[in-house]
Prior knowledge:
Blueprint: H1 2-27, H2 30-37, H3 41-47, H4 51-72, H5 80-97, H6 99-107, H7 115-141, H8 150-170, H9 177-189
Helix pairs in contact: 1-2, 1-4, 1-6, 4-6, 4-7, 5-6, 5-8, 5-9, 7-8, 8-9
Amino acid sequence: MAKNHEQKKExxxxxxxxxxxxxxxxxxxxxxxxxxxxxxxxTLYYNYSSKSKxxxxxxxxxxxxxxxxxxxxxxxxxxxxxxxxxILSTLIRLYISNSEVTRIYxxxxxxxxxxxxxxxxxxxxxxxNAFIETQLKLGQEKGYFRPLPPHLSAMAVxxxxxxxxxxxxxxxxxxxxxxxxxxxxxxxxxxxxxx
Length: 195
């Protein structure tokens, strides 16, 4: 019974991610989400008492999944350059495969969302930024990265990846994921200037 309940919640979160990413928070309708998840509207409200709470759960669970998947790939015996390229490839692949959540994460912090829910979403965003910052600090301690402010570096990494992945999602025929990964890797590891 508990497994069935968790499966329904997962279907709701998946459907919510799709609807919220396509329509934004304000235009999304709980009826649409229930229909897409193939659950009764009562079941939807039983699990998430408001659209704001469902929105927060969608972002929180999605970013937590991304962080867990990155952590699974963080250890490696490869030389640093190959390992760093592999981590970036994993992050970009996760960004694309969780595009509903990452679009919400990047774009949808608007008015009209309950203050309590906004705080929850801001907290998970801070957690994600802190997660990337921690990985960069570890790289600095090992001598792999320059001693730049880790919080600014984390925001720059997330910004570059988000921008290039958003571009890819808008026009997947223009560039490949390999080209995006190689571009991000080169910018982050060597910079743009040939000096």
